[in-house]
Structures are given as C-alpha cells and as structure tokens.
C-alpha cells in the first residue's frame, strides 16, 4: 500500500480534481447566475460568493460571468456591488476588452435586477447617495472601467443609443433606464459628453428611419380609424377636426392598437433623447461657468487648471 501511495502523482491528482470541479460547475453555473436576479439579499449573496470562488479557482472562462458582474455592480447592497466592482476590475486587467464585449448584455441584466429591487414603480437608472448630492449612474462603474479606451467608451455609448432606434422595439421603461444612466455617467473630459450629445448621433440612430418626430405623429394618425366607416382617415383631415373631443378620438382607435402603441413609444423615445441632449448641454454650461469662476478667483493658477481634466460629472463608483 505504501508503494501504491508513492506512485501517485500529486499534480495529476490535482488536475483530475480540478477537472471534475470545472465539469460540475459548468453544469450549474447558468442556474446559479440566474438565481442572483432575486429580491432577497440572502439569495443574492450566496450566488455572488459561488461566482467569486469560481473566478478565484479559474474553473470557467470569466467571459460568461462578466454580464452578471456588471449586473451585480448596480446592487443596492454595498458589500455586493463593491465586490462585483473589484472582480470586474481584476478581469479587465487580466483580460483587456472582455468587459466591453459583454457590456450591453450586462446593462440589460442590471435593468432586470433593478425591476426586481425597485418594485412596481418606475425603474430609474440613477442613485442618490444622500439628499442634496449629485446623482450617479447605476452603470457608472462599468463606464469608468471602459473610459480609458476612447474606442470602447464610444462603442458603449453608441450601443446604448441604438436601443432608442424605432426598429429596436425597445420598451419605454428600458429607454428611460438607459437615458438616466447616460445623463449621470461619470464623464471626466469634455470629449465624452460632447460625443454623447453630437447632433449626428441622434440623426443617424433615432431619426434614421423617421427624420422628424412629425413623421412619427403622422404615422400614428394613419393608424386611427374613421368612426363611421372603419376606414383609415387622412392625417391632414384629422388635424383639421376637433382633436379635443376625447370620445371621438377614442372611437377611432382600432381594436388592435399595437401599431399605434409602437408609434407612441417611438415618439417618446425621441423625446427622451432630446431631453437627454438638453440635460448634457446644461451640464457642460455649468461646468464651463464653474471653470471660469475658479479662474477668476485664482488667476495665477489659470495655466495649471487648463491642463487638468474637466472634472468628473459624477463619481466613478456607484453610490449607495
């Protein structure tokens, strides 16, 4: 028996054991990660702990875990979100670019989590740490990781803006969540918010198929039926009639109002983008005003201040 023990190779034994653990965890990993999307913290914490152990032991490739870590980084529980932030940072250092490839899926998962945590109310994409403090985007830490790469941060912004495209069929609730995040992302240099609010971004994306919101309104009017013969009425003639008559308008709504609802949602998406653009514009103006004020107060330090970054438009970490 002693001879048999001597012939055992400890490295091979470890490799076999590791292989078995990797096989087992791959069978259950998807269900474990899905279980994290739960309102009870006592369910979310064990799921996070298992994922931490899996990453530490290298049992699976981290790329499939990244979307759920992005989701976890928006958790309202500090211990959970900070742990997920650390894991994301470690992965980005070890595997540059992996987080960027899974960012869109991660943001969608974070929206699903917030729907659970925020209850039946309107799902918002920002958080205020204390009353009077400036809000921070729930996905702000994800952006702060990608911010160092101009290509990656711009790709992230463009992927978000594409969700406002009419053809994407994005729900109004999700578009509001995305708009909230973009409004309070931790921008640090002027190039970042300026890229977000560039006019051609909105023209190419949201208004690509509908160059103006008036066309969306006309499309919606064409879905309204004539109250007498059930045929569609001309949009121009509809404008000439009394649009304040609620009963008349209600009688013209078709039984299948799905197409009309799609037009209304598309129009609201356009309005969200316009409001986002104005919000970022006001932030830029406020930032420029503050810089000018500081230069006036300390003119000797003017040259040094011009060389500094524009200043964060929020904090890099998610606030809780």
From TrEMBL:
GO process terms (BP): chromatin looping; establishment of mitotic sister chromatid cohesion; establishment of protein localization to chromatin; regulation of gene expression; replication-born double-strand break repair via sister chromatid exchange
Assigned GO CC terms: Scc2-Scc4 cohesin loading complex
Keywords: Cell cycle, Nucleus, Repeat
Taxonomic path: Eukaryota, Metazoa, Ecdysozoa, Arthropoda, Hexapoda
Organism: Aromia moschata
Region described as Disordered: spans on this chain: 301-320
Keyword field contains Acetylation: no
Recorded coiled-coil stretches: none
Pfam families linked: Nipped-B_C
InterPro entries per record: Nipped-B_C (IPR024986), Scc2/Nipped-B (IPR033031)
Main location per the UniProt record: nucleus
Cellular compartment(s): Nucleus
Source organism, top-level taxon: Eukaryota
Gene Ontology MF annotations: chromatin binding; cohesin loader activity
Family affiliation: Belongs to the SCC2/Nipped-B family.
Record-given protein name: Nipped-B protein
Domain Sister chromatid cohesion C-terminal intervals: 21-196
């Amino acid at each position: 028996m002693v001879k048999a023990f001597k012939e055992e190779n400890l490295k091979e034994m470890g490799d076999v054991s590791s292989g078995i653990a990797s096989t087992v965890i791959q069978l259950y990993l998807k269900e474990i990660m899905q279980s994290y999307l739960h309102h009870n913290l006592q369910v979310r914490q064990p799921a996070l702990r298992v994922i931490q152990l899996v990453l530490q032991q290298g049992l699976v490739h981290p790329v499939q875990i990244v979307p759920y870590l992005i989701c976890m980084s928006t958790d309202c529980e500090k211990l959970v979100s900070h742990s997920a932030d650390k894991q994301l940072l470690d992965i980005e250092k070890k595997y540059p670019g992996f987080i960027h490839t899974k960012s869109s899926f991660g943001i969608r998962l974070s929206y699903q989590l917030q729907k659970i945590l925020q209850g039946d109310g309107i799902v918002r994409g920002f958080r205020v740490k204390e009353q009077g403090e400036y809000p921070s985007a729930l996905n702000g830490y994800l952006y702060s990781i990608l911010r160092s790469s101009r290509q990656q941060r711009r790709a992230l912004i463009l992927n978000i803006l594409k969700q406002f495209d009419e053809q994407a069929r994005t729900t109004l609730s999700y578009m509001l969540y995305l708009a909230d995040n973009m409004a309070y992302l931790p921008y640090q240099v002027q190039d970042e918010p300026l890229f977000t609010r560039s006019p051609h971004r909105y023209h190419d994306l949201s208004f690509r198929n509908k160059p103006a919101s008036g066309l969306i309104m006309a499309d919606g009017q064409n879905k309204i039926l004539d109250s007498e013969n059930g045929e569609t009425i001309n949009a121009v003639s509809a404008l000439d009639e009394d649009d304040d008559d609620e009963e008349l308008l209600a009688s013209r709504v078709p039984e299948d109002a799905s197409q009309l609802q799609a037009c209304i949602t598309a129009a609201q998406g356009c309005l969200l983008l316009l409001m986002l653009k104005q919000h970022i514009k006001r932030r830029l103006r406020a930032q420029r005003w503050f810089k000018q004020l500081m230069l006036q107060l300390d003119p000797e330090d003017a040259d040094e201040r011009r060389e500094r970054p524009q200043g964060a438009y929020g904090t890099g970490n998610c606030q809780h």
